[in-house]
Known about the structure:
The chain has nine helices and nine strands. It is an alpha/beta fold. Bound molecules: SN-glycerol-3-phosphate and calcium ion (CA). It holds the Pfam family GDPD. This is Glycerophosphodiester phosphodiesterase.
Amino acid sequence: MQIFAHRGYSSKYPENTMAAFKAAAKLDITGVELDVHLTKDREVVVIHDEKINRTSNGKGYVKDMTLKELRKFDFGSWFHPKFLGEKIPTLAEVLDLFKGTRHLINIELKSDKFVYAGLEELVLKEVENAGLKDRVIFSSFDHEAVKRMAGLAPEIENAPIFPYSILNMKWYRTLFPAKALHVAYRAVARRPVLEAIREGIPVRVYTINKKEQVDVLRNLGVEGIFTDCPEEIKGMLKQA
Ligand code: G3P
Ligand code: CA
């Protein structure tokens, strides 16, 4: 079963920081998951929320600040004082770290209340510059963004994210034959997702931090999981 470190090794390090990605890069796991937003000066940065309030000592929307302004804030000490000084990473910096490893990198395109015009093109450019086209997966809750990515780079794996089950996966797939599906745990054991698994479509599930959940998902035949505790889950799977 594939294991992806969700927002990096986020149970032990501040999520979506270089510290979390460096720790994940040392693990023998499938890959990492990260979230991207766009700054006022159109830099692709790695952060989960559209605002910096929860994960830094600053306040405000990413879209309203330049990269230089964002770099002034601390993205580590909210998690633990020992991480004081962690800066918001750019996508280019994270990709650079993984050039030297074999990990897959799942880039989740965020949109939330805003749609970042041209985010897909900018993200793809960063991936091409890093020479990592064969090791990335593009995903989003915004299925239009995933479709646009599929149009720009059909050879790269893409996955719409489903927080809930949908009634008719066959119908959905006539609209958009995505290469993979990323699904919330609550939505997995539903007929449309189980049918997709039976058809051989890779299904990956978030966010899985408990052994009981891993056992259920292995029995269902899911391709992979996103976890905040990659080391512990890897250990569990080795023992089983
Ligand atoms: O991509 C799976 C998962 O990361 C989606 O949820 O809120 O953690 O970005 P979230
Ligand atoms: Ca995510």
